[in-house]
Amino acid sequence: MVLPLFAIGSAPLEVDGVAAALAQAAGDAGSDGAVVTFLGLVRNHNVGRRVRYLEYEAYEPLAVKAFERIAAEIGDRWPSARIALHHRIGRLEVGEASIAIVVRSAHRGDAYAACRYAIERVKQIAPIWKREFFDGGDVWIEGATANPDDERARAEAERVACA
Amino acid sequence: MRVTVRLFARLRDIAGSSELSRDLTAGATIGDLWRQLAREFPELAGYERSISSAVNADYARMDRVVADGDEVAFLPPVSGG
Fold it and tell me: N or C: which end of chain A has fewer CB within 10 A?
């Protein structure tokens, strides 16, 4: 079964399956010279706290639309790059992957930049939240106010991606 | 008219529910709905400047007028990845 390009789910992430879906969707006739994959992992420490596990939740239909929007932005900025993006929800243990991003493009520079851009944009505009359970308590992590039309935030993601 | 409210993460914890139904007068905006909820759940008021909102799973501004049957979501600052 071919996986969708953009998905939210509670099953462990399968980066090979995501890469295969992208390869099929891209219909590559040999023009791609690079595949970059990124896995975000649950870390055992955060701002001095010893993290036991995380719980993720998402507003799923809007999160998938946010991924599609990020893909469209990447298509505008790096025309040869195409992306697939899966995010996991539910309880995740230390060391497990919360997000898998795969980017293909003609050349490695665009693939690396677009991949970095994608994770920065996910953190800005995807309606997904993590609750951190640490030794001594738990807390909802609150990062950016999601506003897809905030051009300054988008430009900052592009700046980081191209640094 | 009646709308469905979806709340996420800490907003859900404050309200004690992920989904609510609320009656609004015709012409009410997302902002009006938010202020109604903030009166009901005073702890929400601290999120006034940092929330995002969506209607029927599309981002929408707080001045958007809602319609009968809409699903209105309030989103605290996000932390995916």
Answer: N
